[in-house]
Amino acid sequence: MTLSGKLSLALILGSTALLPAAAMAQADWPTQPVRVIVPFGAGGAADTLARLISDELSRTFGQQFVVENLTGAGGVIALSQLTQARPDGYTLGVNNISTTVIAPAINPNVTYDPETDFTYIAMLGGSPTVWVANPSVGVDSVEGLVEYAQASSTIPGYGSPGAGTLSHLIALKYFDDIGLPMEHIAYGGAGAAFLDVVAGHIPLASGTLSTASPFIDAGQVVPVVLSTEERDPALPDVPTFAELGHPELTSTTWFGFVGPADLPEDIVEKLNTEINRILDLPTVQERLEPEGLVGDRMTADEFAQYQADQYALWGPIAAAAEIEQ
Amino acid sequence: MEFFDHLALGAEVALQPHNLFFCLIGALVGTLIGVLPGIGPVATLSILLPLTFHLEPTSALIMLAGIYYGAQYGGSTTAILVNLPGEASSVITCIDGYEMAKQGRAGAALAIAALGSLFAGIVATILLMLFAPPLASIALQFGPAEYFSLMLLGLATAIVLSQGSLLRAFAMVLMGLLLGTIGTDATTGAQRLTFGMIELSDGIDFVPVAVGLFAIPEIIRNLEFPEARSVVNTKITSILPTREDLARSWKAVLRGTGIGSLLGILPGSGALISSFAAYVAEKRFSKTPDRFGKGAIEGVAAPEAANNASAQMSFVPLLTLGIPGSATLAVMAGAMTMQGIRPGPEVMTTRPDLFWGLIVSMFVGNLMLVIINLPLIGIWVSMLKVPYRLLYLVILVMCCVGVFTVNSSPFDLVLLCIFSLLGIGLRKWKFEMAPLILAFILGPLIEEHLRRAMLISNGDPSVFVTRPISLVFLVLIVALIGAVALPQIRKRRDEAVAE
To answer: What residue intervals traverse the membrane (chain A) (predicted)?
Structure first.
C-alpha cells in the first residue's frame, strides 16, 4: 500500500469514527462561536436585526454569535458562501426577499438554488410597501391616481428603490393588471425616490413604509395604498391592495434567518424558538421600532413554506419584468 | 435669541466629560485612518459601528461624526506626503500638495491644509446651526435635471485640470467613463461588462482604483529612479508656512469654504465636486495659473477648505431630510437607526439634545483636530526620512490591507493588481490620473440622472435648458470649455499674464 493509499484509508476510517461524535456534538450545540453572515453593510436593517438577535443568542447559548458583514452583488456573494459552509450550526446567515426570491429568478450568475440549498430557520418580518404621492398632485387614492394618469398629457413616472426591488415589482404588477401605462424610474434606495416626490420632481413613488413614515408624518407626502394584510392602525384611512382586490400583492420586504442545507433539526428547532422569543422582547422591539417590521412569527416549516410560496409568486413576475441581471 | 439657546443646549450636551471623551476618540481615530494609506472612513465606520451599539446615542454619533470629519483632515496627509488620496475628495490635493512635498515644503502644505480645514469647518458649522432647514429646501430644488448638469460641470473641470495635452486628458475622461459603466445598470438591472463575474455586478470600488492608479505607480517610479525620490532627498525647510504662504492662501480658503458650503448641501458627490470646483476656481482666479500643478499652495488650501466645509454641510440633508449624501453618511444614518432614532426632519424637534449636541460637538472636534494635527506635522514629515527601502514596504502593505478591508474581498486585490499595472503604464506615457478618477466617479451619476430626467420628461431633452438652475450649469460648462479649448483665447491670456 502506497503512502497516499494509507492516508486515504486513515481518512476514511477517521471520518467514520467521527460520525457519532458529530451527532453527539449536536446535542450540546453550540460548543464554539457561531458565525452569522450578514449580506449587507453595517447599519442597515439586516445588520441591526442580526446584531440584536446575535446578542441575545450569545446570552442564551453561552457562546458568542459573531456577526460578519459580507457585502457585494446585492447580497448574493454572502449567501453563496453560506451554502458552501458545513451544516453543523456554526455558520448561519440572514437572507431576504431579494437574495433568495428575486435574484435567483432573474440573475443567471446566482449559483445557488433557493429551493434546495438552504435550511430556513426563522422569519424576522419586514417592512410593507407604501405608495406615496406629492400633495400638490391631488391624489389620495388609487382611483384618483388612475384619473390623474389618464388626464395627464404625458405618461407619468413613478419612483422605486431600484429595478427588481419588491416595491418595483408590486407597482409593475398592479399597473400591468389594471392596464395603466406608467413610466418606472429607478432610484438608488427608497429614501432618494421619496425625496423626489417631496420635492415634486416625480408625482408618485413606491417604497418601504419604514422609509416613508417620516415624510408621511410630516405631511410632505400623501399615502395612497399599503401592502399590509390589514389596515395599519397608524394610517387608518389608507386602503390595502387586498381591499382593492389584489390580495396577492400583500407582502413585505422581509428578512429571515437561514443556514446551509441539511442543518440538523434539533438545532433549527432551538434557534427558531429562541429567535421568536427574542423578537418579542420589549428591549428588542424598541430598537427595531424605526425599521417598521411587521409579520407573524413562524415555525421553521412555516417559514420554509413561505419562502417557497414567495418564490413561486414573485419569481415569474420578476422574470417577466425583463430585469436582465 | 434662538441661535444662542441652541448653542447653549448643544454645549450642555457636547461639553459633558464623557461626550468630550468620545469626541476626542473620534478625532483621533479619524486622523489615524486618514493617515493610514488606503484605509478609508467607510471601512472604519463600518468596523467601529458595532462597538457603538451599547453606547448612548448622542455619544455614539459624536464619536462617529468625529471619525468622519477627522478623516477629512487626515486624508490630506497621505495625499501630500505619498501622493495617495485616502478619499475621492483628496485626489485633487495630490496635485499641488505632493509637488510641495517634493520641494521640501510638506510641512507648510500640511499646516495650511489643517488651518484651512479648521476655518472651513467652523464656518460651515455656524451656517449649519443658523440655516439648516432653509438650506434643506435648496437641496430639494435639485431634481435629476439639475444634478445631471452639475455633474457634467464637474466632468468639464477635468479638462481644465489637465496640465498637458488636452487630447490625453480627453482620453482619460473616456476611459474613466467606460470603467464607470461596469456593473448593474441602475435603470434596467442589466449586467454591463461584468463578463459573468458576480464580483463585478456592483461595479468597481473606488479604493482599488485610486490606490492602483496613484500610490503603486508612485512607488514603482521612486524605485526605478532613486534620484527622483526628492521628497526624501530634499532638505525639508521650515515646517510652518511662511508669511507669503499665508498671504497666498487666505483668499483661497475663503473661496473654498464658500464653494464647499454651497455644494455640500447636495446629497451625492457634493464633497468631491466641491474640491475640484474650488481648485479650478483658484486656477482661474489666479494671476499666475502656471504655478498650479507645480506646488501652488492655493491648490492645497482651497480644495482642503472646500472638502471640509462640504463634509460638515452634508449633515444638512442627513439631519433635516434623512437622506445620507455619501456612503460614509449612510453608515452614520445606520448608526442612528440602530439606536432607535430615525434620521429625518423630526430629529430636530424630538431629540433637540442630540441634534444640537452633535452640531456643537463639531466645533469642539474641529478644534481638537487642529490641536492634534499641528504638532503631528513634524512627526509625519520626519517619517519621510525613513529609508525608502523600508518606507515603501510599509506603504505597500498598508495599501493592500486598506483595499482588502473595504469589502473583505480578495477580488479587490486582483483589481488592485490590474489597476496598478494600468497606472504604471499610463504614467510612463504621461497620462494624468485625476481626469480618469473624476470621470470614473461622476460617469455613473451623470448617466443615472440623465436617464431619470429623460424618463420623467418622457424623452424631451429641453428640461435641461428650461429649468433655470440646470441652464446656469450648462452655460458655465460652455464658458469653461470655450475658455480652455479655444487656443487663441488661451494664448492671448497667457501673453497678457506674461506682461
So the answer is: none
Task: Give the pLDDT confidence score for residue B493 in this predicted structure.
Answer: 55
Write the ipTM: 0.81
| Residues B394-435: tens digit of each pLDDT | 888 888 888 887 777 889 999 999 999 999 999 899 888 888
Choose from B45, B67, B321, B464 for mutation: most chain A CBs within 10 A: B321
Q: Residue A8: inside a domain, yes or no?
A: no
Q: Within this chain, do residues A237 and A303 fall inside the same structural domain, yes or no?
A: no
Q: Which of A232, A249, A266 is the last residue of a domain?
A: A249
Tens of pLDDT along B118-175? 999 999 999 988 887 787 778 788 889 998 998 898 888 777 766 677 788 889 999 9
Do the beta carbons of residue A301 and residue A309 sit within 8 Å? Answer: no
User: Which pTM does this prediction carry?
Assistant: 0.84
Q: A203 and A306 share a domain?
A: no
Cβ of residue A289 closer than 8 Å to a chain B Cβ: yes
Of the candidates B143, B340, B345, the beta carbon closest to that of A201 is on: B143
Contact B293, B105 (CB under 8 A): no
Q: In this structure, what CATH number is given to the domain that contains residue A81?
A: 3.40.190.150
Q: Which residues contact B76 (CB under 8 A, 6 or more apart)?
A: B34, B90, B93, B97, B110, B113, B117, B300, B304
Residue A126 β-bridge partners:
A254, A294
Give the domain-ending residue among A229, A249, A269.
A249
Largest CA distance in chain A: 86
pLDDT tier at A14, thresholds 50, 70, 90: very low
- A83-96 core/surface letters (b: 16 or more CB in 10 A; e: else): bebebbbbbbbbbb
Q: Where are the domains of chain B?
A: 2-142+206-420
